[in-house]
Automatic annotation (TrEMBL):
<keyword id="KW-0808">Transferase</keyword>
<protein>
    <recommendedName>
        <fullName>Maltose/galactoside acetyltransferase domain-containing protein</fullName>
    </recommendedName>
</protein>
<comment type="similarity">
    <text>Belongs to the transferase hexapeptide repeat family.</text>
</comment>
<dbReference type="InterPro" id="IPR024688">
    <property type="entry name" value="Mac_dom"/>
</dbReference>
<feature type="domain" description="Maltose/galactoside acetyltransferase">
    <location>
        <begin position="30"/>
        <end position="55"/>
    </location>
</feature>
<dbReference type="GO" id="GO:0016407">
    <property type="term" value="F:acetyltransferase activity"/>
</dbReference>
<dbReference type="Pfam" id="PF12464">
    <property type="entry name" value="Mac"/>
</dbReference>
């Protein structure tokens, strides 16, 4: 069972240091997605209340 399948089934999983190439690729993709989401949340949380265009 690969990393993504474990996540979807709600099973315990490790986020880093995978040995299989498939899980390493999934790990890298998930890391990129998380960083992108954190950037979006940061931008949203640090914009002015009156700045509806940015929000």
């Amino acid at each position: 069972m690969n990393l993504e399948e474990r996540i979807k089934k709600g099973m315990i999983f490790y986020e880093t240091e995978h040995k299989s190439i498939e899980n390493k690729e999934i790990e890298e993709r998930l890391d990129k997605e998380r960083r992108h989401c954190k950037e979006k949340m940061f931008d949203y949380n640090h914009c002015r209340p009156d700045d509806q265009k940015t929000r």
